[in-house]
Amino acid sequence: MIRAYKFLIRPTVGQQSALAEMLRDHCSLYNGALQERRDAYRHTSKTTVRYGQQSAQLKDIRAFDPERQGRWSFSSQQATLRRLDKAFAAFFRRVKAGEKPGYPRFRSNKRFDTVEFPKDGDGCRWDSTPHDPATRVRLQGVGHVRVHQHRPVPGKVKTIAVKREGRRWYVILTADQAAPEPLPATGSVVGIDLGIANFLADSNGEFVPNPRHGRKAAAKLEAAQQALARCKRGSKRRRKAVETVARMHRKVRRQRLDHAHRTALDLVRAHDIIAHEDLKIRNMSKTPAPRPDPEQPGSFLPNGATAKAGLNRSIADAGWGVFLAILAAKAEGAGREVIAVDPRNTSRRCPACGHTAKENRPTQEKFHCVSCRHNAHADTVGALNVLRAGLVRRDARPA
């Protein structure tokens, strides 16, 4: 199996400058390749330039500009061109599917933050020994850069990427590993119901509170964004304000990821089978459609957009999608089973008698069956129904 690792690197001042130049030159290559594709389509009878043609030009590009392009890894430049090719492939896929196309755009140096090396040993080298604090990663054109390796990397390193986040630099590895030993069986099964009031409720009646990291940081973030809006464009003060806002957003993201990792790990360690709702988060966070006023052309009726915007912020702040992805990855490595079930009516169906009606849930938290008078917390009822649906789906799978 393939696993990814992310480590902080500690470059010297000279290495930081070299890393920034590497990003700048790869960004220039990306933009140049994009411009070539645009010009070929517009001015040469709608000709499409593909990755193979642009990759074949790299040798001449490196010979023409040895100072900016010839000093970097040939493979990393190929990876940058392949990255552009993937952007165009996704663009054409969206066009065929009738979605919003999103034509690939030019990148500024500030928004081009990653350089990939497709193979360890080709323009890069991961130099690590177990329990050795002097871990290094060698990058062509940069040198041997110190790595803060906080955990070992078993298996064979396949790819290496360098990423800039604010003023920090990271190295991201992918390693090919043997399947890990599964955790000992616990004999426990659980269903979970994700929500806003509580981040998670399980079928055993337990709750995981919603930390609401984004809401807690909203006041400081609002003040920082107001200060940014008052700065003059192009000024040094504005650059500092941009860094402040970005740093606050990164902190919230790290807090959200940490909470998701801890919660998923607790579930994987305690249960053999975990059932959850197959949520369509993108559909749940869509903006409501406008409601034209038939009596006054050009006017619109209230459509609840303000309340829906607040709900969308809460859904994004909870980070359900990230949590479910982390849960699936941890369960795979631990030999656990994760089952996604249809979420329809899971909070309206009585677990005691099976009666389904919207009247069974009079409030957000309360469940009161109008048929058998069963009372419980609505999220616990949802988690219990999710577990039962997951077990039925598991038993119905063909052998």
Structure description:
By secondary structure, the chain is α+β, with helices and mostly antiparallel strands. The chain folds into two domains: 2-176, no CATH class; 189-214 and 244-396, no CATH class. Helices cover 43% and strands 20% of the residues. The chain contains eleven helices and 16 strands. It has helices at 13-43, 51-56, 58-64, 74-97, 213-216, 218-229, 236-270, 281-284, 305-318, 320-334, 378-396, and strands at 2-10, 114-117, 124-127, 136-139, 143-148, 156-165, 168-176, 189-194, 198-202, 207-209, 273-277, 291-292, 300-301, 337-341, 366-368, 375-377. A seven-stranded antiparallel β-sheet has the order 2-6-7-1-5-4-3. It has a five-stranded mixed β-sheet with strand order 10-9-8-11-14. Strand 6 and strand 7 form a beta hairpin. Helix 1 (13-43) packs across helix 4 and helix 6 packs antiparallel against helix 7 (236-270). The longest helix is centred in the middle third of the chain and has 35 residues, at 236-270. The chain is globular and about 80 Å long. The relative contact order is 0.10. The mean pLDDT is 93.
